[in-house]
Design a protein that fits this description.
This protein is α/β, with parallel strands linked by helices and 330 residues long. The chain has 11 helices and 13 strands. The strands form 4 sheets. A 7-stranded parallel sheet has the order 3-2-1-4-6-7-12, with helices on both faces.
Length: 330
């Protein structure tokens, strides 16, 4: 009998993927690490091997289904059957739609959306015969509420949510024990804002409030271990989704008025800016971006949503005690 779990993380070289790898490693999970930049993956591997787990580096482009399939085969051969698959890889471009080029939209879609599809299919090929396993889709508040300047990315996240809902229904139809979940994230302090392609005059930035990637990592690991359909991380995620349900037209106007400036810092982008839309960048691979001074390290909303049973028990106990106290005063 195996004494360890095996998880796969795409986009494991930096940002949320690197933070999630560390969080899984703390819990004794062996890891298959997939991304385009081998040196950065090796750095992630060094990080997590300090926790006494095994890791396998797989340099692959998630937009290529053959490369994802080859990576999955190598991971199972070296580490054992895959228990958890986390689809996290993404790219984006910050640009008005009227300035987008078709090949740019195609690239964001293929990496962000089809990358998740390719990862899901590779996971299912291995999990279905065993009738066990968990697939975690890393989503965003933007999978419910799109914002200006990131139309291709928002479209890809919407598509992942639709694909995942279809898959979930099919697994229920087949009475499969495979669990699929989606973690909807808030704005995070990751390096993507230093790497993403932009046509705006000032450097891209996340829309506040900003959270550290370790919060996302904890949410991903929790979602992988609990049969929750969807997990919303951060009060800003919940507010954006609720606001879009209640007053989408008003939100359109607010974002039209404030959404451009909110996604740009005060620093000029500069003509020599490098980006990772077509190829990986060669520096700055870490979990954190440049917004440590603004980012929150805790999320009360995440704590509450992952402790619902405790909260319910506490509320019930309070009611019981109140009832006993009222009876004793009679």
């Amino acid at each position: 009998m195996r004494k360890h779990e095996v998880a796969v993380i795409t986009g494991a070289s930096a940002g949320v993927g690197r933070a999630a790898a560390r969080e899984f490693a703390r819990r004794g999970v062996h890891l298959g690490l997939i991304a385009r930049h081998r040196e950065a993956l090796e750095a992630t591997k060094t990080d997590i091997e300090a926790y006494g787990v095994k890791a396998l580096v797989c340099e692959a482009d998630v937009a290529r289904s053959d490369q994802v399939e080859a990576a999955a085969s190598a991971i199972e051969r070296d580490l054992g059957p895959i228990d958890i698959w986390v689809n996290n890889a993404m790219v984006t471009i910050v640009s008005p739609i009227k300035q987008l080029q078709p090949d740019e939209v195609k690239q964001v879609t293929e990496v962000t959306y089809l990358g998740a599809v390719n990862g899901t299919l590779a996971a299912l090929r291995r999990m279905l015969p065993r009738d066990r396993g968990t697939i975690v889709q890393v989503g965003s508040a933007l999978s419910y509420r799109a914002i200006p300047l990131q139309a291709p990315y928002c479209g890809a996240k919407f598509a992942i949510r639709g694909f995942t809902d279809s898959l979930r229904s099919e697994l229920l139809h087949d009475r499969s024990r495979i669990h699929v979940t989606m973690v909807q994230l808030p704005a995070l302090n990751t390096p993507q804002f230093d790497w993403c392609k932009t046509r705006m005059p000032r450097k891209p930035r996340p829309v506040p409030p900003i959270f550290q990637p370790e919060i996302a990592a904890r949410a991903i690991v929790w979602a992988a271990r609990h049969r929750r359909r969807e997990l919303f991380v951060g009060s800003s995620t919940v507010k954006a989704i609720l606001a879009n349900k209640i007053a989408p037209g008003l939100l359109d106007r607010v974002l039209g008025r404030k959404g451009y400036d909110a996604q740009q810092s005060d620093e000029p982008a500069g003509p020599d800016r490098i980006d990772n839309l077509w190829d990986t960048v060669r520096k700055g691979h870490d979990a954190h971006g440049r917004f440590d001074g603004e980012a929150k390290s805790n999320s009360s909303e995440l704590w509450l949503t992952t402790h619902r049973a405790w909260m319910g028990a506490a509320a019930l106990a309070t009611l019981v005690l109140a009832h006993i106290a009222s009876r004793s005063r009679r």
